[in-house]
Amino acid sequence: MYMSIIILASMLFWGALIYELSKSSKKQNNRKIVSLISLGSLSTLVITISLFQKLPF
Question: How far is residue 51's CA from residue 6's CA, in Å, rounded to a whole number?
């Protein structure tokens, strides 16, 4: 259940980042872009680690 929430949040972070980057360069908020990249990367890392832990070796 918690993985679904993390996956959904990650998708929202990346979607918000794409929306922010699609704005003109004068309207872009650099702090927001850095925050969204950081949150998106962290959530993607958590998802990746969780999926690798579930692989049978």
Answer: 12
